[in-house]
Amino acid sequence: MQEFNNCLRKAEIGSDEIGLAYANRSACFFKMGMLQECLMDIEMAKKFNYPSHLMHALNARVSKCKRLLDEGQINANLCKVREPVLSFNEHEEYPGVADCLEIRQNDKFGRHIITTCDLQIGQTILVEEPFSIARDSRVDCDRCLGCFKYAQNFIACNNCVGRCLHCNEDCMTNSFHHIVCNSLIAEEYEEKIELIVKTIFSAIVAFSDIDRLMHTVELLLDGKGTSDLTNAHLILHFVHVVVNQVSLNEYVKLETGSRMDFGFFLPYAHGMYPFGCYMNHSCLPNVCSMSVDNRLICKVIRPIKKGQQIFRSYLNPSNLNYINPLTDRKLDVEKQLHMKCECNLCSGDAWTMLHDKSLKQSPFWKDATAAANMTEKAFRALSNETKEYYENRTIKFLEMYDRFHPLNDTLCVQWALIVMWNVLATHF
Question: What sign does the dihedral 332-313-295-259 (CA atoms) show?
Answer without folding.
Answer: positive
